[in-house]
């Protein structure tokens, strides 16, 4: 049983770490948020005593609705598409490799090492390697010539072609409609479980928000007086391939550990009941891998949301077609000396990463307490 002396000793041991954490992590986060609410950078930003005024959320409004900040919105779209394709590709390739290695295979240790090796590299090294490979006049574009075929002409990192285009004016309405439908569906789920009060608190607001969006004019909620098309730049394909090449080995290791942890009795019981190997894989193994998939999505997602070094090494900071908010934050803050706007971008990235990490941590802690 712990005594007061043990608690005091534990507190004294933790105090230095807590103090440093409070100052150099949360203190600096608070300072960044505070700077984002000012106009620091509009005047003589590098003066010894710059004149700074409080402007509230004006910097955030400009980022999402300002005519001059169209690059931020395209960078945000690039980041969303990159995150989606990167996570899906890493999960798919990792699961495929893990499934192959889970079978009796000669030289399994060799192949496992080969697949894991890219993970040991930094994103800067990976970016440099893939920059050489994806040169428009060399690299993979000349590979077909080795077998007598014409060379490829694809501009891997500089193409300005876009697919999956949409109008930014419809983004606020689409997000509100999605939120309303999610609340409504959660309310229906609660109703089926017999939780009447909770169902009403969820379903009614969700239905109201959805009706307002459908019956209103969501195209005018963006604050933009004109259509602003955005989409997936094909130049991001090379970035996605390079990132997936490096991190697929990580997901392979996670899935391989999960497959090896599945009791053999479960697979044998399914086979006795007449299940084919494919059915065993689909109905026994894959469902048991869901916790690993969730963990991989969270880890890969937070890497993708704050990606910087890979793109910086592959295409540089000035290639707008492959830019992401982290790159723009660097340019805005340290080249443009617009410290308030750069702090606003940093705060938005923090919110995005926190929205992915915090629910996962809370869920894990709650599950640990229940166990």
Topology:
Blueprint: H1 4-36, H2 58-65, H3 70-101, H4 108-116, H5 123-133, E1 162-167, H6 171-192, H7 196-215, E2 229-233, H8 236-261, H9 264-272, H10 277-288, H11 290-305, H12 309-315, H13 325-334, H14 339-370
Antiparallel strand pairs: 1-2
Helix pairs in contact: 1-14, 3-8, 3-11, 5-8, 5-12, 6-7, 8-11, 9-10, 11-14, 13-14
Describe the model.
By secondary structure, the protein is an all-alpha fold. It has a single domain (about 35-160, about 235-370), classed as MetI-like (MetI-like fold). Helix content is about 65%, strand content about 5%. The protein contains 14 helices and two strands, in the order αααααβααβααααααα. It has helices spanning about 5-35, 60-65, 70-100, 110-115, 125-135, 170-190, 195-215, 235-260, 265-270, 275-290, 290-305, 310-315, 325-335, 340-370; strands at about 160-165, 230-235. A two-stranded antiparallel ribbon has the order 1-2. Helix 6 (about 170-190) runs antiparallel to helix 7 and helix 8 (about 235-260) runs antiparallel to helix 11 (about 290-305). The longest helix is centred in the first third of the chain and has 33 residues, at about 5-35. It starts with a helix and ends with a helix.
H-E string: HHHHHEHHEHHHHHHH
Mean pLDDT: 86
Number of alpha- plus pi-helical segments: 14
The CATH superfamily name is MetI-like
Count structural domains.
1
Strand content: under 5%
- CATH architectural label: Orthogonal Bundle
Major sheet details: 2 strands, antiparallel
What general outline do the C-alpha atoms trace? globular
| N- to C-terminal distance | 22 Å
Q: Return the CATH class.
A: Mainly Alpha
Low-confidence stretches: none
User: How many beta-strand elements?
Assistant: 2
Q: Can you give the helix content as a percent range?
A: 55-70%
Secondary-structure-derived class: mainly alpha
Strand order within the widest beta sheet = 1-2
How is the CATH topology named? MetI-like fold
Radius of gyration: 25 Å
């Amino acid at each position: 049983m712990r005594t007061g002396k043990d608690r005091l000793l534990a507190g004294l041991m933790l105090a230095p770490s807590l103090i440093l954490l409070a100052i150099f992590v949360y203190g600096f986060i608070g300072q960044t948020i505070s700077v984002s609410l000012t106009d620091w950078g509009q005047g003589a930003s590098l003066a010894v005593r710059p004149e700074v005024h409080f402007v509230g959320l004006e910097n955030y409004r400009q980022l999402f609705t300002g005519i001059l900040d169209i690059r931020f919105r395209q960078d945000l779209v690039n980041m969303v598409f990159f995150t989606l394709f990167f996570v899906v590709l890493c999960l798919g390739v990792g699961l495929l490799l893990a499934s192959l290695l889970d079978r009796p295979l000669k030289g399994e240790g060799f192949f496992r090492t080969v697949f894991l090796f890219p993970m040991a590299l930094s994103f800067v090294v990976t970016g440099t390697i893939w920059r050489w490979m994806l040169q428009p006049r060399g690299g993979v574009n000349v590979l077909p010539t080795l077998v007598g075929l014409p060379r490829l002409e694809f501009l891997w990192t500089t193409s300005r072609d876009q697919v999956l285009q949409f109008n930014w004016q419809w983004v606020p309405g689409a997000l509100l409609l999605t939120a309303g439908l999610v609340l409504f569906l959660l309310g229906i789920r609660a109703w089926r479980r017999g939780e009447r009060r909770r169902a009403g608190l969820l379903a009614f607001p969700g239905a109201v928000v959805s009706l307002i969006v459908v019956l209103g004019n969501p195209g005018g909620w963006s604050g933009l007086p004109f259509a602003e098309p955005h989409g997936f730049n094909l130049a991001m394909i090379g970035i996605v391939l390079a990132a997936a090449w490096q991190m697929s080995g990580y997901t392979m290791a996670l899935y391989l550990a999960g497959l090896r942890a599945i009791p053999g009795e479960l697979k044998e019981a399914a086979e006795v009941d007449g299940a084919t190997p494919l059915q065993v894989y689909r109905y026994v193994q894959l469902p048991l891998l869901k916790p690993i998939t969730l963990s991989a999505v969270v880890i890969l997602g937070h890497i993708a949301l704050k990606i910087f070094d890979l793109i910086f090494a592959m295409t540089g900071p000035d290639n707008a077609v492959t830019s992401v908010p982290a790159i723009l934050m660097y340019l805005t803050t340290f080249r443009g000396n617009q410290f308030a706007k750069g702090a606003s971008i940093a705060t938005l990235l923090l919110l995005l990463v926190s929205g992915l990490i915090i629910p996962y941590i809370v869920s894990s802690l709650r599950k640990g307490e229940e166990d």
